[in-house]
Amino acid sequence: MVTAGSNKWGMVVDVDRCTGCQGCVVACQSENNIPINLEEHFNQRRAIQWIRIERYWEGEYPNVKARFIPVMCQHCGNAPCEPVCPVYATYHNNEGMNVQVYNRCIGTRFCANGCPYHVRFFNFWEPEWPESLKNQLNPDVTVRSRGIMEKCSFCVQRIQRSTRESERDNEVLEDGDRGLNPACVNACATNALIFGNFNDPDSKVSQIKEDAMKEGGRGYRLMENMGTDTNVVYLKKVDQSVEVTHGH
Amino acid sequence: MIPGDFQPQKPTGSQLAKLGVLGVVLLGVFIGIVLVLTFVISAWLGSPVIFGHDGPDQPIEFPHETHVTDLGMDCTFCHRNVEKEAAASVPAAGLCMTCHSAVGDELEGIAKMRGLYEDGRSIHWVRVHRVPDHVHFVHEAHIRYFSEKEGIQAQEVCATCHGDVASMDKVQQDRSLKMGDCVNCHKQNNAPTDCATCHY
Hints:
The complex is a heterodimer.
Chain A: E1 9-14, H1 23-31, H2 39-43, E2 52-58, E3 65-71, E4 90-92, E5 98-100, H3 110-114, E6 120-122, E7 149-151, H4 156-168, H5 183-187, E8 193-197, H6 204-212, E9 219-220, E10 232-235
Parallel strand pairs in A: 1-10
Antiparallel strand pairs in A: 1-8, 2-3, 4-5, 6-7, 9-10
Chain B: H1 13-45, H2 64-70, H3 75-78, H4 93-100, H5 108-118, H6 139-150, H7 154-157, H8 159-162, H9 179-188, H10 195-198
C-alpha cells in the first residue's frame, strides 16, 4: 500500500553551474558499490553509471561550446519502468522515490527498455574489484550480483540513516543537514546539484522549483512531453551570448 | 502333476542379482527422498528437524550462561555498538583481556584466547544469526523502539529476537528471522513495511 508520505525527495540540477567535471559520477561510483567500468564495457554499451554527464558540442570551430547535462534516475511520479516489471521489483514508495528491490529482480530488463532516460543498468557480469579496493566497498549498500537491474536510488541508505538519526534525536529531518544529501550532491564542486524535500515549502529545492517553474523561469524537466512527472527539475543554461529579452 | 497346475520356477542366479540391485536402488531412492525432505522441511522451519538444535561450535567456548546469568554482565558490555549502530558488534579479544588477564588461568579456551591476543590476531567466531542477503537490519533502531515502548533497559530487549541467550551454553538461533517474521512484527508495531526500509 502506498500512502502519501510526509517527504517527497527530489533534486534540482542547475545546468548553468555544471562544469562537467564528473565528480558526481566518481562519488556515486564509490558510494554505491558500482563495479569498475572497463573500456570494453563502454564499447559494448554495458557500462554502469547511475549518474552520467551528457556532453553536447555546440557551434562551429572556433566558436565551440561544450554543454553538460548530468542525468540520473528522474524518479518519475508516473514511471514507465514500473508497470512493465512482472515481479514488482521496481515500485514507487510513499516518499516519491522509484525503488529497485534487488532480491525481487529476475533480470527481464523490461524496465530498462521502458525507461526513456536510459538510467537503468543491467549487471551483465559478476561485479569485481581489484584486491586493493575491496575494503572501500560501502557496507550500507548491497553489492548487486550478475543478472539484476540497478539504478540511482537517491542514496536511499543515507535517507534511511538520517531518518533514523533524526528520530533518535527527536529532531525534524531536514534535507541538506546532517549529511542528508546523495553522494553526488555532496561531491558537486559548483553546487549544480541540490537535493531536498519537495513537500516542505521552505526547503531550498521547493523554493527554487517554484521560482523556476514560473512563466519565463529557467526550470524544465527532461522529456516533459512524455508525462513522466519527474522529481528532478533542471535549470536552463544562462547563455551570455543570447540577448536577454525579458525580466532579470 | 495336474495339468495347468502352477509350478513356481526357481529364480535363476541372474534374476536374483537383478532383484537385489533393484532393491538396493529403491532403498537408495527412498533414503534420498527422506534426506531431501528433511532438508527442505528444516530449511522451511529455519531449524534442523533432526540432529539437535545446538548452535555451531565456536573456536573458543564462550558460555553466555556463566557471563550473563552467573556474573550478571549486561549484553551491552560486550556488544558495545548495539545501541549506537547497525551492527551489534562482537568485541575484540582486548575486551576479554580486561578480566581474563587475571582470571580463568585453568581453562584451555582462555589460554588460546590469550595466545591470539598476544599475536594481535582476532578470534574467528562462527556467525549464528544472519538475515538473508540484501537486508539491512539496524540494531540501534530496534533497541531504541522497544526500550522506549516498554520502558525497559536495552539489554532486556535483546531476548525479543535472540531468545534467552543468557541461559544458552552454545548460542543458537531462536527465531526464524525470515522476512515473514520481520514483516509480522513490523505490522504489529506500525513500523514501515516499505521495501526500501530494509532492502537497499
